[in-house]
Every structure is written in C-alpha cells, then in structure tokens.
Specification:
The complex is a heterotetramer of chains A (311), B (337), C (320) and D (499). Chain A is α/β, with parallel strands linked by helices. Chain A contains 10 helices and 12 strands. A 6-stranded parallel sheet of chain A has the order 2-1-3-4-5-11, sandwiched between helices. Chain A has a 4-stranded parallel sheet with strand order 7-6-8-9, with helices on both faces. In chain A, α3 packs parallel to α4. Chain C has a two-stranded antiparallel ribbon. Classes of the chains: A alpha/beta (311), B mainly alpha (337), C mainly alpha (320), D alpha/beta (499).
Chain lengths: 311, 337, 320, 499
C-alpha cells in the first residue's frame, strides 16, 4: 500500500514540480534535448529571455528523437499554443506537423537548424546558425591552413543527423566550389562522442599515418578525440591542422597551444535569445525576416584572445 | 511458485541432460571449443595480408587500448550471463555514473576519493537491480532497463545535462601513461580480467555463480545463497562499469550523461560471441575476452579496410547471430542420443 | 480479495486514473476530447508496435529489433513511392516489416537462437541496412499534402493511426481470448512441450508471432513515414524501451503465457497520458524518464510481491 | 473399430541413436479392452518404445499396425489422429490455461470460428465427474495440486475418446487412495473397449491392474505373458535378470537420544501444529497422501520454505532456520524429492556437485582448495561406488540411481546429524534402490538420524523404525514399527477409521 502511495506521490510531484499557470501568451518550444552541452544553455537563455518578455514557454524535449519531436508538434497544437519554436533534427519530417500548425493559425519558427525548402511556406522565420554554412566556413578555414592542397580525414557526427548532414555537405560542396585540391581520405561517424572519436581516430592514424595532412571534425568534442589519439600514437610529432565547430572552451585552449587550427563559434545563448525575441515580435504582429542568422565567427590563433568561447 | 512448469518426476536420463553438455565427436568438439581460436587466427592472417599497418605493435596497442574500457564491462557481464541473469541493460547508466561522478567530485573531495565514490555509487545502482532481480524475482531485462532509466535520469538532473570537465590534468596523465610500453588502462583491464577469472573459476563465489546459473533450485537446495549470488552478479557488473566509466572520464577529462550508450550491447556481443550461453550455467572470463578480441580485431580490420560504419554494424549483427546459431547447431550434431 | 490485491489487479487503471486526476487538477482544460485525441495519437505508434509485442511476449519471445524494423519499413515505403506509387509502396513497407519478422522467426525457430540474442543481432543488421539504403540521409516522400491529410482528426477523436491502433487492440483482444489459435498461443508460451504433445506446432506459432510483430512494426513505420513524409534511418532508435514498458505495465508477463490486449491498451494509454501531462507542464525529459522508470519498476514489483489469491490469474487465464 | 482386430501390433521395432541401441527388435501386441503393462528397469527401453508409439521417434526398423492397419507416425499429431493418447509421466499440461482448455488442448471445439468455451466447460465438467474428480473446470491449472493435475492429464486423454491410451507411470504422484480411484477409472475404460498400455515400476500395482505383462530389459523384449500367475519375485527377477530376495532389508541399529525436535511447526497453509522428534540411529518415516504437506514440512525444516509458527530444536537447543545455509550449520541436510529440478546441477561435474554445500569450508580467502575438493569427491565415488567412477564427469550424464548416490554424497559431505530424505528411491531402478537402502542403513548404524518421506508403503514398512502419517497438514502421533501395517497407515492417511 505504502509502495503504491509512494509511487503515486512521486508521479504527482513530478507533475507539479513545474511552472504554474499564468494568463500570458504561451509559446511551445520543441527543443533538441534538455541535457546537452549546446542545447542546455540555449534553452536556458531562451527561457530567461521569455520571462523578461512576459511570455510563457512550454519546453518539450525531443531527446534527439525525431519521432518524439513530430508527435510533440501535435501536443503544441492541441495545447493551443500562441506560437511554436521548433528545433528540427530532420530536414523533412516536421513538415506535416508545421502544416497542421499553420492550419491552426499558430505561427512557427525554426531555431538552430534549417529544414528543406518545402518547409519554408509553413514557417515564418528561421533563426540561428546555418550548419551548412558552418561546413562551408570550416572548408575555407582548412583550405587556408593547407594552402588548398592535401589529404584530410573527416570525423562526422551521427549518421543521418541533420547537423551532420549540413556540416559534412557544406564542407564537401565548398571544397568543390572553390576548386580546392584537398582530397578527403575518409569520412567516419563518431556520433559527436569524444570516446568514439578517440577510437576511430586511432584507427585512422594507424591506417593513414603521416598521410593525414588535416582534420575536419563536426564538433570540438570529436576534435579533442583526434588530438588525444594523435598524442597517444605519435607523441612529439607535430599535429596536423584540425578544424572543429562550436567554439568550446577547451577548443580555445587547444588553439592557443597550437593543437587545433581553428573552430567556429556559435553562441547557444545568442541562438536561444534570438529565437524567442523573434517570436515575441511575431506575437506582437510585427513582420520579421525569413532568415535571421546568429553571428558565426571563425576563431584561429590570430583572434582567439579577443573572442568569447561559446560554452 | 505455482507458475513453474510441471516437472518430470521420473528418471529419464537421456532427456534430463542439457543438450549443451553432451559429448560429441572429436571434430565437432574441436570446432566448438577451438572455433573461436580459429576465427581469431583467420582474422589475424587476413588482416596482415590485406593491410601493411595491421601487424604492427602500434596497431595492437591501439586495439588493446580500444578494448580495455569495454573489456572491463565484459568481465562483469560474463557473471550476469553465467548466473542466468540474461543481460544487464543498466550499463550505460552505471558508466555515466562512474564517469560523471569521478570528474564532478574531484574538486570537492579530491581525485582518489572521487574515483572510489564514483565506483561505489555505480555499485549501489547494481545493488538495487540485484535486489530487484535476486530477492524480488523481477525479470532482469525489465529490472535493469527500469533502474538504468531512473539512474540515467537522476544523473542528468544532477549535472543539469551539460558536459562535466575534469579539473585535475595529472589524473588524466596517469591514466594515459604507459608502463613497459603498455598503456596503464590496458594493465588495469588485464588485472580486472585476471581477478574476474580467478573469482569465477577458483573461488566458492564463482562456483556458486555457475551452480546458480546451471540449476537455481538445486543450488538453493544445496545451501547456496542463490539470491545473493544473483544479486552479486549485477553488483559486480555495476562495479566494473563504474570503474570503466571512471577511467573513461579520466581519459577524456570530460563526461556527458550519454557517455555509456551502446556499451551494454558491445559487452553482450563479446560475451555471446565468446560462446557463453545466455541461458546461464556455463562460461568463463577468458572465453568472453576471446570473443571480445575477435570482435575488436574484426572491427579493426574493417576500419583499416575503410569499410563504412553501417556495414560494420551489419557484419557485427551477422556475427552474433551466426556465432550463436553455429554453437547451437554444433552442439546438436554433437549431441546424438 | 484484499484491498491491496484489488489495487494490484487493477493497477493500470489506478495509475491511469491518478495520472488523469493530477493532470486535470494542474492543467486547466486537460480533461477534454482534444487531449484524449492527442493522447491516443501520441500512443498510436508505440501502441501498434506494442500490439505485436504483446503477442510475442505471450509466446515467451521478445523482439528487440522492432525499432530498426520500424525504420526499415518506413524507408521502403518512401523510397518505392516514385517507382510504384504511394499505396503499393506502403504495402511494400508493411511486407518489409513482415519479412524482417520472418527473419527473426527463422533465426529463433529454425536456428534455435535465443530470441534475445537473435533480435539483438537483427537490430544491428536492420539498422545497418536502413543506413546503407539511404546513405544515412533522410529520404523525402513524393506527396507532402498526403501527410497533412493523414493527420486529420475524425469524429473529433481518431486520427488514422490511432484508429488503427484501437482497432488492432480490439481485434487482438477477441483473437487472444476467443479463438482457438489465440488460446493455443498461450499454451505455447506457457508450456511449449505440452502444446506440442497436444498436436499444436509451437515452432509455427512462434514463427507467425514474429511475423505478426514485424508486420505491425512495419505498419507503424509506414504510418510514421507517411505522416512525416520522410523515411529516415534514425527513426525508431529509442522505441524499444517504451514499447516493452507499455506492454509490461499492461500486465503481460515477460516469461510468457500471460497477458492481454486490453492490458496493453491500458499500458500504452498510461504512458501516453503521463508523457502528455508532463509535457504540458514542461517537465524536463530526464525527470520524465525517472517517473516512467519508477512506475515500471513499481508495477512489476507489486505484481511479484502481492499475490492476489490463487484464483485471480486463473480467471484471467480462462476468460482472457 | 472392429472388435476382432488387435489394437496395436508392433513388430521388430528397433531404434538406434548414434552409438546406442535403445531398442532391438521389440514385438508388442495389445488387444482392445485389456490393460497391458510394460515393466522394466530404467533404461530398459520403455520410454523409447512409448516415444515410438506416440510419434515422437521414428523407429529405425520395424512396423506398427493400429487396428490391423499399418501406419507410419512422424509426429505426435499423427498418433493422435490414429486415436492414441498419452498420459505422460512429465505432465504435459499448460499451467496458464484453465482446466477445460487443457482438457481440450490441441482440439478445441469451434463455434462460428471462435473457441466454444461454454461447450468445453460443460463437457469437461461431465468428464471430471465421470472420473470422480472434484475439480473446477474454470480453475487455472497451475493453481491445482500435482495429483489434481495428474487427474486432469488423465481426463484430457479420456476426453479425446481414444482407441489406445498409454499411461506412463501415472501413479508416481498419486497416493494409494488416489491410485485406487485411478484403477476404477481404468477398469471403466477397459469395459468401453479401450486398449490400455500401463507403464510402471511398481510391480504390485501392475499385478493388480494388468491383464497382460510385457517385460523389457536392456532394450530387448524378455517376455509377454498374462498377469495371472506371475509373482512379485518372479517379475522382479525377469526385470533385473536376477532374483532379489529381500526388497527392503532393515539394518539393525542402536537408537539413542533425540537429535531433531519439531514443536508445533506450521506455515499456516500447507501444514499446522506438527510435532515430532527423531533420535540418533533412527529412521522416522513420514508418509501420507500427496498434498498432505510432507514435502512442505521437510522444506520448512530445511529452510527452503518459511514456517510461520512453532520451533525447531537440534540437540535440545532451539535453532532459527531461515535458509538452507542455516540448516546446514545446524546439522540438517535434505535430499529433495525432485532430483532433476532440485537435486543436481546437471552442467557441473560430480565433484562440483558433491562439494557444493561445503564449498566455503573448503576455501581459504575465498579460493576453493582443489585438493580438498578432489579428496572429497574421490572418497564418496569409491564409498558409494558411483558409476562411472569418474568425479570429473558431468553429473547430468549419469543414470538416475548414480545421480541420487551423488546427491546423498553431497549431503554427507556436509556431515549432518539429521538427514531428511524426500522420496529417495522414486524413479530409481530396483538394483540402485537396494543400494540406497543399504547406504541409509549404514548411516543410521553410524548414529545418524534420518527422516524419510515416502509414498511407497512397502518401503515405509520395510525400513522405518517409527512412522508418522500426515493428513491435510496435520501429523499423526508416531506409530512404532511393531504396530505398523499398510491398513493402519492408510486409515491414518485417509481418516477412515477402518482396520
């Protein structure tokens, strides 16, 4: 009996342990995850700014599962939210949900990641960095580092993930576009995971050895994995130039010490703030631009001291 | 206990014998015993023929280092399978527990106590699963799934979901250092494996584990504390995963809640490929490690060959199914009457 | 029967009722047709897969590969659209699911590989095939407006998939409790040797159970692809835990021989209601995880420790 | 079914497994309306022969005729279609289905495509009534007692209106009382013209019920003859190939002080207020109908089940027994009834099985001393002449009798002062049975106190010094050897004040 009660109390508490109900405008925020190095500060910034703006936010976490996200859009519509901020994890899958939101006359914007062009007619705006653009910037940076020539390896995120697709696609397309002579030796998936990156890097180093002239990692965490593997396998030998993305603190340290060539800073705080501010304007009936980028900064040894790390 | 299927109450010796334990023809016997050794040898030969980098000290150290972390989990998982506990699916949670706590507690109580506390807390998670499985009688899959979900949720809540960074680079240097050219982490793995092997094959606890997996009721009627033995297997696995996680945290000097994802399946794969029955009552740590070595070498060869990640998963899946199907087939053919 | 035993027997109903009560007190307007409709839709994907899983668990089997089958079926349905049209492609997707189930059945019945190990292997294999087919990119469908149409709500309650789910559960209920084949399924899960000695073919039953579970995972996968107009190799990666939890919370025993379709409906609705209620309150996903984990463990512990008298399960066994 | 035809005619049936010839050229003829007993020791080929008859095995050579028609049965369903029904010794029932569903398992009646539950319940009630069993057709089978389940198994075979019914050790879990009821049923079936094949170890029972007897030994048929005119001794001689004079010899021993005393013990469900004591050098018999609470009592004394009331004393001192380990510490050992399920760990060697309860004593710093382990196994292998004399052999590969000797060794290694034996000779062939009795005799001669649970009255009468009889969870006062008779025990067991 007591056990039943305990369980019930726990579930009751879980339901109650959250923000109360107020008669403010309600925005439904479908985020990528609520426990993630980038997403968490973005979520926090978004929620903090919303409070200042007097907007009620319902945060739904997809926990990196697209299917959950598509169903959460339905929750938002059923909840009769005044606006939807979606963090898409797939370029396609949310389109029908967004279409339904439009039918229900709920304005929707995208945060952080883009979707396919087909989605454009269902959204009011897209705020945030462009992962494809980040790939392009990384390509430019690595092209600079190698003087447009050499063999590189790409350590990619999770296969099939929207960010991975954008960051790898932008990189490869850009290299072709500028006619770079950089050759991609291999692209391996390490799921944005440092340990997995460490393991695949060990294998890459064994396989190609000194044939690796440069490295492009889809994020700084995985760049870290390559650095560790290199130091392990070839202690004392000079590190090939490594380009990462995100602008984490430890990447800044690595750039200063020369272990990394560059990273691209995108601030999760800016990302979150911009999204809610844009939504607030939409709710006030103002016109907003269809594309509202957050600043992306390439950080190398040259400017590392003047830029703030993202997180 | 009314749900226990009706037992036979008469002696039919041929039928009472578990198929697995029948004698067979020498060839079949050799195949089932030495199959794994032959397979490892085949991978070695193929690897050295196809890649100039394969048969190098560097590559072997690389393979060993890569398998050390999952290897420690494999040692624990062997106990779970042998005791008839099916599988411990809470491994990702206990690894995360070890990794995050060993880093997060460093500034508070110092690196060594943090390390110990991380492992102890992981062990506590195993104790909860173990109590549910051994004493309450809950199916291990459900219990470890549930406990794993809860623990992972708590761990995420505790750190607010962000990455925890290390504050003491010396600890990282220690874990990454080498002794006689062998990485310390590999030595730790070997020590755990040797201790695990000793406990399973030479100690009374190990004998109890095998007996409980072989026939739980008979072991219980032989004054074996079966509930504790079952629970113990899960505690052992959790301590191993905790240790694994702590070492992982120190190596990476950063830890995320999802750091342990996938390790449970890698460990089960190794144990199963090592020829250890999921039904329990049979198996040893060296067999499980042989399975791990085979899987790791094969993966290494595939990576050196530039095989794509999805294909690697495909091959691994085929390997698990094939290894077990072959095992079943060999034992059946060897069985006869 | 004691009060406690009664509580345990109707535990799913109790938890479901409690969830609804607490939610309605904290979220104004929670108890409404639109919430019910939403909850059903949220539960439909899990529920359709859980319907297949119920049959497998009763037969003392398990399928860990349903998430991968789900993705594979969806991809098949989307990739074939340009070639053979939407509906034939959807059918092909379901058949792909059934084929995946048949492979599991084959491994388990013919090659006698333990179901847990066999489906662990095929989970990897099917997922790899999904990545290989799509080159790890999501594949768009041909008609996006169909997706919007499919999500339409009928009779103010049902979407296509939630109607399919409820229909499937009701059919399964009749099948399990009233048909000879359904009763034979219980016999196979409870004591396969006895079933075989009585002229029932356990191998065939188990094989068909796998095919059924695969086909339903296929149906769910196809519906998912059609409503999102996307086939993605990463779909369904997180499904399996929820599916098994829903079935087990519904009172189906993982050791075979006991279970019911209506229980699964209760389990699915409980989980859907809980998720929806917590999402309405912005409860972080990790807290949601802790709550679902606790409820799962709690229900199973109660099931184990409280024996609701010797006859209760008999009645359940005889009448469904 | 033509009355003239012979129900079953098997000619020259042989069955060879790789390396083993299980049956060689067996002929068997069974007539309709007669009970045909098949007797033989374990391994004589009875089970193999029945598996051929039930379609589980295809014979290597030989032909089978049912009612004059030659048939070839490849699976159990084939045999069932021909009207052959088995009552297995390992009950083939489904615990999670109802009694009625079990009775109709594999051939449930349909109505509009659905299972016709009403018809099943109705018919099952009729059949159970006919068999004189008071069982609710709606009850979940797993909730019934073993003997009730046995009756359901018989009802299941009977309900199929078979031409030939095969009963494999049907009385192994039935009390004498229930056995008598079964025999009434069999006689009724016989009158209906059903051919009954009755397989049993129990020679006396066979002579009581059978019309014809076929004796198998080592896979060959020794003889078929009418049951009239065979004596028990003759039949045993034919089974074992030698004359066994005294089936249950009693070794004299000196009875000393009480060792184990059980006071007002109860588990508030299976047994209540049980009092007895067993003395040094004494064999105390514990008998009664199956389900009377004997096994539950023994398990509670050994700590495998929980007692809710009363106390246990060893050597005059009260002991708390919460687990088998505590019982072992108190000097109590228990050889369980179900050897396969609770006695042996088949995957371990004889050595590993024998040392299981004393592993901790053989260990230092957690490590098991292999020397001590081997010494223990060697000792008992020799002492009890366990065959084959190889302690490293997996125990699952041994015959039942040798397994039982190993289980006894296991407990003697723990050096107990009280030994609880639960049906120690069930399923053990005649030769091994005598040997086990010899060992028990030696143990009590050496001063051990033994509590022996047995359903076999001749055994109880033969070896026990005193006997207590349990009925519905209550124990009778001990009856001295001098005052014992089968009638007296039956009267106490059934509560009928006869004799």
């Amino acid at each position: 009996m007591t056990k039943t009660k305990t369980g019930m109390i726990i579930s009751a508490l879980a339901l109650l342990a959250s923000v109360g109900w107020a008669q403010a405008k309600t925005v439904c925020y479908v985020t990528a995850a609520d426990a993630h190095a980038y997403a968490t500060p973005a979520n926090e910034a978004l929620e903090a700014r919303a409070k200042e703006l007097g907007i009620e936010v319902i945060t739904l976490s997809q926990n990196f599962d697209v299917q959950t996200g598509t169903e959460q859009l339905n929750t938002c519509i059923a909840r009769k939210a005044d606006g939807i901020i979606l963090w898409p994890l797939d370029p396609q899958a949310y389109i029908p949900g967004l279409a339904r939101a439009q039918q229900a006359e709920i304005p929707a914007i995208l945060i952080n990641s883009p979707m396919d062009e087909q989605a454009d007619r269902f959204i009011v705006s897209f705020t945030g960095p462009d992962v494809y653009e980040e790939g392009e910037m990384a390509a430019d940076s690595l092209n600079d580092a190698l003087d447009g020539e050499g063999a590189v390896v790409v350590i990619a995120g999770q296969a099939g993930n929207g960010t991975t697709i954008g960051r790898v696609g932008g990189f490869v397309d850009r290299l072709t576009e500028v006619g770079s002579k950089i050759e991609v030796l291999d692209t391996v998936n390490a799921d944005f995971d440092q340990q997995k990156a460490l393991v695949v890097s060990r294998d890459l180093i064994t396989r190609f050895g000194d044939g690796i002239d440069g490295v492009y990692a889809n994020d700084d965490t995985m760049a870290r994995g390559f650095i560790d593997a290199w130091k392990e396998a070839k202690p004392g030998e000079p590190m090939p130039p490594i380009v990462g993305i995100n602008g984490q603190k430890d990447a800044f340290v690595s750039i200063k010490s020369g272990e990394m060539y560059s990273t691209i800073v995108q601030s999760p705080v800016e990302d979150g703030k911009l999204a809610i501010e844009t939504m607030a304007e939409i709710l006030d009936g103002k016109e907003v631009d269809a594309r509202l980028p957050i600043p992306l900064t390439v950080v190398t040894k040259a400017n590392v001291d003047s830029v703030e790390p993202a997180f | 206990m009314t749900d226990v299927p009706i037992q036979m109450r008469q002696d039919t010796t041929q039928d009472t014998t578990n198929e697995r334990f029948r004698g067979g023809s020498p060839l079949v016997d050799l195949l089932s015993r030495g199959g794994l050794a032959i397979a490892i040898l085949a991978v070695l030969v193929y690897g050295s023929l196809t890649s100039p980098f394969f048969f190098t000290t560097g590559n072997f150290v690389n393979v060993l280092t890569s398998m050390a972390i999952v290897g420690i989990v494999v040692v624990g998982m062997t106990f779970v399978l042998v005791v008839g506990g099916l599988a411990d699916l809470s491994v990702p949670a206990t690894i995360a527990c070890g990794a995050i706590l060993s880093l997060a507690l460093q500034p508070v109580i110092g690196p060594v106590p943090a390390f110990a506390a991380a492992i102890a807390l992981a062990g506590l998670c195993g104790l909860i699963s173990g109590l549910l499985i051994g004493y309450v009688g809950i199916n291990p899959i459900i219990a470890t799934l549930g406990v794993g979900t809860i623990v992972l949720g708590i761990v995420q809540a505790a750190v607010g979901g962000v990455i925890v960074y290390g504050t003491n680079p010396d600890t990282a240097a220690l874990v990454k250092s080498r002794l006689f050219g062998i990485p310390v982490i590999v030595l730790i793995f070997l020590a755990v494996a040797i201790i695990g092997h000793f406990v399973l094959s030479r100690s009374y606890w190990g004998r109890w584990t095998v007996a409980t997996g072989g026939n739980c009721s008979a072991a219980e009627a032989s004054a074996v504390p079966v509930r504790a033995v079952k629970a113990g297997a899960f505690v052992i696995t959790a301590i191993c995963s905790g240790l694994s996680g702590a070492l992982l945290g120190l190596t990476l000097q950063s830890a995320r809640p999802l750091v342990g994802t996938g390790y449970e399946f890698s460990a089960i794969t190794a144990v199963v490929v090592g020829g250890i029955s999921i039904m329990g009552g049979f198996g040893s740590v060296p067999r499980a490690i042989a399975g791990l070595v085979f899987v790791q070498l094969l993966t290494n060869v595939m990576v050196l060959q530039g095989v794509r990640t999805p294909v690697q998963g495909f091959v691994l899946g085929l390997l698990i199914a094939g290894a077990v199907a072959l095992d079943v087939a060999l034992r059946k053919r060897g069985g006869g009457a | 029967m004691t009060m406690l035993a009664r509580l345990v027997r109707y535990r799913v109903t109790v938890i479901l009722g409690l969830t609804l009560l607490v939610a309605s007190l904290t979220v104004p307007g929670f108890l409404s047709i639109s919430t019910l409709s939403l909850g059903l839709d949220r539960g439909a994907t899990i529920g359709i897969i859980a319907t297949g899983m119920t049959v497998l668990l009763i037969a003392r089997q398990i399928d860990l590969s349903v998430g991968s089958t789900f993705a594979l079926a969806g991809i098949t349905a989307v990739m074939l659209q340009p070639a053979i049209g939407i509906w034939p492609a959807a059918l092909a997707g379901v058949l792909a699911g059934a084929a995946a189930g048949a492979i599991n059945g084959l491994l388990s019945v013919v090659f006698k590989v333990n179901a847990l190990v066999a489906t662990l292997a095929t989970m990897l294999i099917f997922r790899s095939i999904a990545h290989w087919l799509t080159d790890s990119q999501p594949v768009p469908g041909t008609d996006i407006m169909l997706s919007v149409a499919l999500s339409k709500i009928y009779l103010e309650i049902f979407t296509l998939r939630s109607a399919l789910f409820v229909g499937a559960i009701l059919l399964l209920h009749v099948w399990l409790t009233r048909t000879v084949a359904g009763r034979n399924l219980f016999a196979v899960g409870s004591n396969a040797d006895a079933a075989e000695a009585s002229g029932i073919a356990p191998g065939r039953t188990v094989f068909l159970a796998f095919v059924f579970a695969g086909a339903l995972a296929g149906v769910a996968g196809v519906l998912q692809s059609l409503t999102t107009n996307t086939g993605s190799p990463v779909f369904g990666a997180e499904l399996i835990v929820t599916v098994i939890a829903a079935v087990v919370v519904g009172g189906t025993r993982i050791e075979g021989g006991r279970g019911s379709a209506l229980g699964t409906l209760g389990g699915v609705l409980t989980i859907a209601a809980l998720t929806t209620a917590m999402e309405f309150q912005s409860v972080p996903a990790y807290i949601q995880q802790v709550v679902s984990g606790l409820i799962l463990i709690l229900l199973v512990v109660l099931d184990r420790t409280v024996r609701p008298g010797p006859r209760t399960h008999a009645a359940a066994g005889a009448s469904g | 079914m033509s009355a003239a035809a012979t129900a079953l005619r098997m000619r020259g049936i042989s069955k060879t497994f790789p390396g083993v010839k299980a049956l060689s050229s067996v002929n068997l003829t069974v007539e309709f309306g007669r009970v045909h007993a098949i007797v033989g020791e374990n391994g004589a080929g009875k089970s193999t022969l029945m598996k051929v008859l039930s379609g589980t095995y295809l014979p290597t050579t030989g032909t089978t005729e049912i009612a004059g028609v030659e048939v070839r049965m490849r699976k159990p369903a084939d045999a069932q279609r021909l009207g052959i029904r088995m009552v297995h010794q390992e009950l083939n029932l489904v615990p999670d289905l109802s009694v009625a569903e079990n009775v109709y398992l594999g051939r449930m009646p349909r109505r509009w495509g659905l299972a016709d539950k009403a018809a099943m319940l109705r018919e099952t009630a009729v059949i159970l009534d006919e068999l004189g069993a008071t069982i609710d057709p709606k009850a979940r089978l797993g909730d019934l007692s073993i003997s009730q389940q046995q009756l359901v198994e018989i009802a299941k075979a009977y309900a199929a209106a078979p031409r030939i019914i095969v009963l494999d050790e049907p009385t192994s879990s039935l009390s004498e009382h229930e056995t008598a009821a079964l025999f009434r049923i069999l006689r009724k079936m016989k009158q209906q013209g059903i051919a009954i094949i009755y397989i049993s170890h129990r020679v006396k029972e066979v002579l009581e019920i059978a019309d014809d007897v076929t004796i198998l030994r080592d896979g060959s048929m020794i003889d078929t003859r009418p049951a009239d005119g065979i004596t028990v001794a003759e039949m045993i001689r034919l089974m074992v190939g030698r004359e066994v004079t005294n089936v249950f010899p009693k070794t004299p021993s000196e009875i000393g002080a009480p060792v184990l005393k059980v006071v007002a013990l109860g588990d508030s469900y299976n047994f209540r207020n049980v009092n007895f004591e067993v003395r040094k050098g004494e064999i105390l018999g514990l008998t009664g109908l199956v389900g009377a609470g004997r096994t539950e009592l023994a398990k509670a004394v050994f700590g495998l089940a929980r007692a809710t009331e009363g106390r246990i004393e060893v050597d005059g001192k009260p002991v708390v027994i919460g687990s088998p380990a505590a019982a072992v510490r108190a000097g109590i050992a228990y050889v369980p009834e179900d050897r396969k399920d609770e006695g042996i760990v088949p995957s371990l060697s004889v050595r590993e099985n024998i040392s299981l309860p004393v592993l901790r004593k053989l260990s230092r710093f957690g490590r098991v001393s292999m020397t001590a382990d081997r010494r223990l196994a060697d000792k008992y292998t020799k002492e009890f002449s366990i065959m084959p004399p190889d302690p490293e052999r997996r125990i699952g590969l041994l015959s039942g009798g040798n397994q039982q000797k190993a289980v006894l060794s296991k407990w003697l290694s723990a050096d107990p002062s009280v030994l609880l034996l639960d049906e120690p000779t069930r399923g053990v062939d005649v030769g091994a049975k005598a040997e086990i009795h010899r060992i028990i005799g030696e143990l009590v001669a050496g001063g051990m106190a033994v509590v022996m649970i047995s359903s076999e009255l001749p055994e109880v009468l033969g070896v026990c010094d005193r006997v207590i009889v349990m009925r519905d969870g209550h124990a009778s006062a001990p009856v001295d050897r001098a005052a014992l008779s089968e009638e007296k025990i039956m009267a106490l067991a059934t509560g009928e004040e006869a004799a």
